[in-house]
From TrEMBL:
It comes from the Bacteria. InterPro entries: DDAH-like. The keyword Hydrolase applies. The keyword Nucleotide-binding does not apply. PANTHER family: DIMETHYLARGININASE, DIMETHYLARGININE DIMETHYLAMINOHYDROLASE. Keywords: Hydrolase. It comes from Micromonospora viridifaciens. This is N-Dimethylarginine dimethylaminohydrolase. GO terms for biological process: arginine metabolic process; citrulline metabolic process; positive regulation of nitric oxide biosynthetic process. GO terms for molecular function: amino acid binding; dimethylargininase activity.
Length: 292
């Protein structure tokens, strides 16, 4: 069930993630171009890949928490979308598709039970937010916009989290969350696939990232941008050779943790690991991880 591991001896609090186990993982509906109910995930293989991912994240020094899903919540293995969490507070996701709406409550219950405080939404039914669209780069929150998140929701995040938000309009429906085309590496570098966005989005990101690793649509289709970075380790669903050598030249270690069963639902590693400290601000740590 709930399980906490911290990086022994580390002088910094470990990076914390929340995962949801694949108890009820399946492809039972089609809400993105990757999903077809004709191609269902294999149960045993899903568990193997999920356990492998937990082990890789821990080996990289992360604190991994996890919780089970509920019957019927077949996409709950992608808890990144249930909200935007920053230290000890969170904004609950507002899913675009009714098929995923109950996940927000299930994720919020875990967060509330573990000491996080919820920041309420204004009473506006037209705001949508899925956590996969929220990606921090330096002092800015990038917010994917279009398929799953509305501009008004991005403005709300900026207000309540007190951070500048840059919206990036997504035009390629295969990459319906920003975390499929943008992966921050550190405060200067990021992997990204500009062809996924409209021209304005390309322009703002180009201005923002001093040292980009620009990838093609074909490279992004491997889910290589849907990765998690822990210190200098990048845990990736796949890593084409050109991307690997660029990352290694920059001093990163690449760890590939295949999650092919989850790709059938259109989600990779970043979707499977909710970052509990998205904005990385100190002073917001919840009691989840005791730091000596
Ligand atoms: N089947 C899920 C959906 O379409 C996949 C979620 C992927 N999540 C992400 N953060 N990219 O919503």
């Amino acid at each position: 069930m709930d399980d906490i591991v911290s990086a022994a001896g580390s002088p910094h609090p470990p990076k914390r993630f929340l995962l949801c186990s694949p108890d009820n993982f399946d492809v039972t509906f089609e809400i993105n171009p990757w999903m077809t109910t004709e191609r269902r995930p294999d149960r045993e293989k899903s568990w193997r890949e999920w356990n492998g991912l937990v082990a890789e994240l821990r080996a990289a020094g992360a604190a991994v928490h996890h919780f089970p899903s509920l019957p019927g919540l077949s996409d709950m293995v992608f808890p990144t979308d249930v909200g935007v969490v920053d230290g000890n507070r969170f904004v609950r996701g507002r899913f675009r598709h009714p098929e995923r709406r109950d996940e927000a409550a299930h994720g919020a219950t875990w967060l509330l039970e573990h000491g996080f405080t919820e920041i309420p939404w204004p009473d506006d039914p037209n705001m949508y937010l899925e956590g996969g669209d929220a990606v921090r780069f330096g002092d800015v929150l990038l917010c994917g916009n279009g398929p799953r998140t509305s501009p008004a929701a991005a403005a709300h995040l900026s207000r309540v989290l007190d951070i500048p938000v840059v919206t990036v309009p997504i035009v390629d429906p295969r990459f319906y969350h920003l975390d499929m085309s943008f992966c921050p590496l550190d405060d200067r570098r990021a992997i990204y696939a500009p062809d996924v966005w409209d021209v304005e989005g390309q322009r703002v990101v180009e201005k923002l990232v001093p040292e980009p690793l620009i990838i093609s649509i074909d490279e992004a289709l491997t889910f290589s941008a849907n990765s998690v970075v822990i210190g200098r380790t990048v845990v990736m669903p796949a890593c084409p050779p050109r991307i690997r050598s660029a990352l290694e030249d920059w001093g990163f270690t690449v760890r590939v943790s295949p999650v092919d069963e989850f790709l059938k639902a259109g989600g990779g590693i970043r979707c499977m690991a909710l970052d509990l400290d998205l904005l990385g601000r100190s002073g917001h740590l919840s009691p989840l991880v005791q730091v000596e």
